[in-house]
Design brief:
Elements (H helix, E strand, L loop, with lengths): L10 E4 L6 E2 L4 H8 L3 H22 L5 H15 L6 H6 L7 E2 L3 H10 L3 E6 L3 H11 L7 E4 L10 H11 L6 E5 L2 H10 L2 E5 L14 E4 L2 H5 L3
Helix pairs in contact: 2-3
């Protein structure tokens, strides 16, 4: 598959956070509390978010992403010796009030105008996703919102990608999955989905197994193929 072949697909499935949604910039506000520990606080928090989802998969101890997000932030605060609970008030709401990444609305509208079925498949809670879709105004272009809450398993477990096929009534050859997260692209493509890695952060390719994957630099670039 090459990038031109994307237009032949019927079902277009997108990861949410980091792919369609970005969180607000709150570093200046956070620095007033965390000082020179701000960057480490944020980096550890976000790394632990992912690690905890994967570890909970292995332990079969699912908790919604909102819970995992709080757990990860609590750890990062303790690690950095930060006790001011205002940090929770600053950071935790970010996933309920996201902004759109440049080009997202234009791409989703173009897909709908071309008769494609558009869905979101995310580790985020249903509340996070519903809020994000409504606040950013893309509810007119998204046909299905699929949360791992429905099955209590996080990506990149194969069951999550199978859920998308089942809920959409799609065959594997009709669907393409988009994510800016390489571990997600790896999981989806190894499951058997055609996938597109949106390398909008100019990352070096990970040493993970990948199936049938094409790479693009941005959502804006994809719009040009329809």
């Amino acid at each position: 598959m090459n990038i031109q072949d994307i237009s032949n697909k019927k079902f277009f499935i997108f990861d949410a956070f980091g792919t369609l949604f970005k969180t607000s910039e709150v570093k200046a506000e956070l620095t007033k509390i965390a000082g020179d520990k701000t960057d480490n606080l944020i980096n550890v928090w976000r790394n632990k978010q992912l690690q905890y989802t994967w570890l909970r998969n292995e332990m079969e101890q699912y908790q919604p992403f909102s819970v995992v997000t709080r757990e990860a932030l609590d750890y990062s605060m303790r690690l950095n010796g930060i006790t001011d609970k205002k940090v929770f008030d600053i950071l935790l709401p970010l996933y309920d009030t996201p902004q759109l990444i440049d080009g997202a609305k234009e791409l989703l509208k173009t897909l709908k105008d071309n008769g494609k079925t558009v869905a979101i498949l995310s580790n985020g809670t249903r509340s996070m996703l519903d809020n994000g879709v409504q606040l950013t105004g893309i509810q007119y272009y998204v046909d299905h919102i699929l949360s791992v809450d429905d099955i209590g398993i996080y990506k990149p477990r194969p069951a999550v990608y199978q859920m998308a096929l089942d809920k959409l009534g799609a065959t594997i050859d009709q669907l393409i999955f988009f994510s800016s997260n390489q571990w997600d692209v790896s999981g989806a493509s190894i499951f058997g989905l055609d996938a597109c890695w949106i390398n909008q952060y100019n990352e070096t390719k990970e040493g993970l197994p990948f199936g049938n994957v094409v790479e693009t630099e941005s959502l804006k670039e994809l719009t040009g193929y329809f």
